[in-house]
Amino acid sequence: MKISRAFKTSLLLLLFLGISSAYVKAFTIAGPSMAPTYWYDDIVVSNHLAYDFRLPHTDIVLLETGQPKRGDLIMYFDIPKNVVATKRIIGIPGDTVSIKDNVVYLNGEKIRQNIEPKSFFGNVPDKNGIGEIVLSEEIDGTSYLITFTPGEGKITSLEPIKVTEGKYFILGDNRDNSADSRFIGLISRGQIKGKVIHGNRPLESYAPPSA
Fold this sequence. Notes:
Distance between the termini: 69 Å
Order of helices and strands: HEEEEEEEEEEEEEEHEE
CATH class: Mainly Beta
CATH topology: Umud Fragment, subunit A
Oligomer: single chain
Number of helices: 2
Radius of gyration: 19 Å
């Protein structure tokens, strides 16, 4: 039986869509933990091939394709909540992470922080919980925004934690409202599902246009 060219094209397209849906996934932000980087209902796209090649639509890892790095925005399986969530990697295996009054120290060195004008963020809906202070924070050349209100968060300081092999220390960008490694401890390599590749709001998107 002769198979038409159109049928072959359609079959290949369906196959491509089926495979790509296993490795490029969209998620809707359902909480304030990553504000101001993400807001409620923002849609982010995750590359599920960034770190591992898994058997499509399973958790079976066939091949490691990369390693999570400091500053990466990741999608990971949040065990306490039984959902896939997003956070930022701060510490990788071998690092020591501590926090003092919302200032993060990595291997004894203070992570660079710069205060940003609060007026830039007046359009952020209140439910995202922007604090009194918004800062740009930088780690390994990756710059991003964080927010907090001094004395507001439940855990604003943390004694040094050694990140052991196969583990990672993660934080939300909203330091007052994020169930991250300060609360749940280190996460394992196997919990990390992908790297966010689209959807963040850089500082330039907030700043008013120059006169």
